[in-house]
């Protein structure tokens, strides 16, 4: 009887640990990822802003972003997947770039806490990696 009670306690403890791990893994909100003044992997002193623009557009489209040139050195990146959408500003020079949050829907963005669904951060991370490596031009 004592062994049965210990066995039940182990099952309860195991179930409790499983629930805690599951709850921790479901945490989908995270601080909004932003890229600030990130240098390109290899900068070129002879780079042309128009060529950088074309390479950033290619990098975004590779990741299924809709890319729209707003002004020289400024692209708006739009990403939509199923019922979620995100808009980011990509601002750049021939040497550095930034990616900042602009708007979203379906991603549980909380402006007060500056948090968003972690999928958004994955998209920013992937776009950052691709833009970082656009050189050589």
Unreliable residue stretches:
19-26
Biggest sheet, open or closed, and with what strands and sense? Answer: 5 strands, antiparallel
Count the DSSP helices.
Answer: 3
Q: Please state roughly what percent of the residues sit in beta strands, choosing from under 5%, 5-15%, 15-25%, 25-35%, 35-45% or over 45%.
A: 25-35%
Encode the helix/strand succession as letters. Answer: HEEHEEEEEH
| DSSP helix fraction | 25-40%
Structural class, judged by helices and strands?
Answer: alpha+beta
Say how many strands there are.
7
Could you give me the name of the CATH homologous superfamily? Kinase associated domain 1, KA1
> What is the molecular shape?
elongated
CATH first level: which class?
Alpha Beta
Instruction: Count up the domains.
Output: 1
How are the strands of the biggest sheet laid out side by side?
2-6-5-4-3
Word description of this protein:
The chain is α+β, with helices and mostly antiparallel strands and 137 residues long. The protein has a single domain (29-132), classed as TATA-Binding Protein (2-Layer Sandwich). The chain is 39% helix and 32% strand. It contains 3 helices and 7 strands; from the N terminus they run αββαβββββα. β5 (84-92) and β6 (96-105) form a beta hairpin.
